[in-house]
Structure prediction request, 211 residues.
Amino acid sequence: MSKSFDLDYDDDDRQHYYRQYGKDHPERSRAAVGFLRRTRLLNLVLIGVACLFLLWLLRGSREKSVDWHKFAYSLYATDTHSLCNALLIFESLKRLGSKADRVLIVPQEWDTTVHSATDRDSQLLKIAQDKYKVTLYPVQLLGENGATTPGTLNAESSWDTSITKLVAFDLVYYDRVLALDSDMTVLRNLDHLFLLPQADIAMPRAYWYLP
Prediction:
């Protein structure tokens, strides 16, 4: 028969009962359980921090062994407007600390000699080379009917010349090329995309639709 307490029993009687029947005091039991829970939680936190630190070390050692000159960001410009947008993206890549090379596909008619204060194309190309370390890749622009001519400061090129972006497939001296469009905004470093598993090509169905 279990023994019950009434109001006349003091703490000494209760402690004697718990020792006699092999039970611990409820408050001590709760304290012990609370201590074990806190200890277990602390151990889990320490293990999590250790795992994150180990992953950080492994990632750092992996990136140090990467030859970033084997990778490149590719953009193309067909007129002054798209050239200006391309420079904005190169500025973002530099500011965000991207390590891969930067290549700009441009019309072969353009050059980096600034002939006058209004020679905006040459001025922007010089900025791309000197400030953002961009490699220029002159080509004959492509259109729906084959080779075509570029637009200028006063005349935009047609959408047909956007086919020129496919020239990025000519950059075969790189292991991987990330081809970007100039009508986009880069919000964070994208270098991790070069380290994804091997694939022949990867792309969304359309830039406005991601399944």
